[in-house]
Amino acid sequence: MREDTIELPERDLRLHVLRAGTDGPRVLLLHGFPEAGFVWGPVMEALQGEARLLAPTQRGYAPSSCPSDPAAYHPRALLADLVALIEAEGAPLDLLVAHDWGGALAWGLAAARPDLMRRLLIVNATHPAPFLKALREDPAQQAASAYMNALCAPGAAQRLLADGAAGLWAFFEGWDGRPPTWLDAVQRQRYLALWQASLDTMLAWYRASPLRPPQSPDDAVMRLRLDPAAVTVRVPTRVLWGEDDRALPPSLLEGLEAFVPDLQVEREPGAGHWIVHERPGRVAQAIRDALAP
Questions:
Q1: DSSP code of 149?
Q2: pLDDT tens sequence across 155-212
Q3: Alpha carbon distance 175, 177 (integer Å)
């Protein structure tokens, strides 16, 4: 496994990436918040003899480009980054793998540009249609997602970084109701350096999105309309879901088949939102299964 930098001048973008493997199918892995490309390291090590793997640290996450313009984090801009990256590396991908915020982008990319990938694997990342419905109608999901509004509040980065980033460690230590045994000293050092360098631009992803719990009847999420045709994914898709995820509970899988006709869902008992860290071997096997004929 090696580190690399990809320059995408048409996007005015520099991406720090991890690469592994030199032969086999091409796999792109997308991280979520508050993580970075390094989250995929153990998965890539397990697969590096079987595939060509690329894990970028996305826009707004150091040491990749972190522009200050809020417009740089609009979903259209983030999707354009992925299009440029995939085309630069050679489209189509054999498999796009994505977790959390990376998954939110992957759902959108698969619906809009199915020509860029042959298959899709989503790991604990909700499709926008059931998520929008839950945010509007389900008090339990509104409570589970209340952290999104807190992340968008003025001064959120400073508050989260206070007291040694206590507010950020709480994401890992409290979300799934158990201590994160994977969060050793090396991982803590990596995460702290990432957050200290770029937390405010990482939070810009949340500020640019209307998909968060309504705080009044006039909130943007209450007016948002999704054209079913625009969010239907016709790429063969697998979903791996840690069932102990408290922020994105398995109830968000209900009705997913209406938007993903070619769908296989695998539930992982005892795993939570941070399944990529908790069970990298299981995630690696899901990638093998998704790549199988």
A1: H
A2: 999 999 999 999 999 999 877 767 899 999 999 999 999 999 999 999 999 999 999 9
A3: 6
The amino acid at 195: W
CA dihedral 43, 46, 52, 53 (to 10 degrees): 10
Report d(CA 251, CA 158) in Å as an integer. 33
Residues 200, 274: Cα–Cα separation, whole Å? 22
pLDDT of residue 179: 82
The pTM assigned to this predicted structure is 0.97
Distance of CA 288 to the CA centre of its chain: 19
> Are the C-beta atoms of 242 and 278 separated by less than 8 Å?
yes
**Dihedral pair phi/psi, residue 2, rounded to 5°:** -140, 155
Q: Under 8 Å CB-to-CB from 220, ≥6 apart: which residues?
A: 210
Q: What percent of the chain is predicted at pLDDT more than 90?
A: 95
Q: Any alpha helices (H) in 29-145, and if so which ranges?
A: 41-47, 75-89, 101-112, 128-137, 139-144
- Per the CB < 8 A criterion, the answer to whether 148 and 213 are in contact is yes
| Rounded Cα–Cα distance for residues 216 and 213 (Å) | 9
Surface-to-core class of residue 31, CB atoms within 10 Å of its CB (0-12 exposed, 13-18 middle, 19+ buried): buried
Q: In terms of C-beta density within 10 A (0-12 exposed, 13-18 middle, 19 or more buried), how is residue 91 classed? A: middle
**Cβ neighbours around 181 below 10 Å, total:** 8
Structure tokens at 3: 């580190």
Distances (CA, A) of 78 to 10, 11, 279: 13, 10, 28
pLDDT tens digits for range 222-270 = 999 999 999 999 999 999 999 999 999 999 999 999 999 999 999 999 9
- On whether the CB atoms of residues 266 and 238 are closer than 8 A, the answer is yes
Instruction: Answer whether 8's CB lies under 8 Å from 84's CB.
Output: yes
